[in-house]
Amino acid sequence: MRTVIAVLFSLILLVGCADEDPTADGDPDQTTAAETEAEGATDGDAVTIVGFSFDPGTISAEVGDTVVWTNEDGPRHNVTADDDSFASDNLAEGETFSHTFDEPGTFDYVCTLHSGMSGTIEVG
After folding, report:
1. Cα–Cα distance, 120 to 60 (Å, whole number)
2. Which residue has the higher pLDDT, 62 or 11?
């Protein structure tokens, strides 16, 4: 009986992590891979989400640069600044989030769904 309850609880947690279309709210920072390509993002301004980590973990950018995060993991992830200056919806595999940095500074961010996932954008 305990095994059945544990399995049901695990399924409920998994279903709870899979939300509806993350772009449905019309978030202007939420983009598709095609839109990102059309914007001409450079490799230096790109972060890949893979293996429950942000790669690279730290990148440098200039004021006015747009950083694009792409989820290449099966599970959903998000990108949330420690100072709440930016936040994505939960990104399904293949989805992207972009943010333009208008001020210099160090911006630490995490995936709020998975502890231990963190990264830094250093804007000069």
Report:
1. 9
2. 62
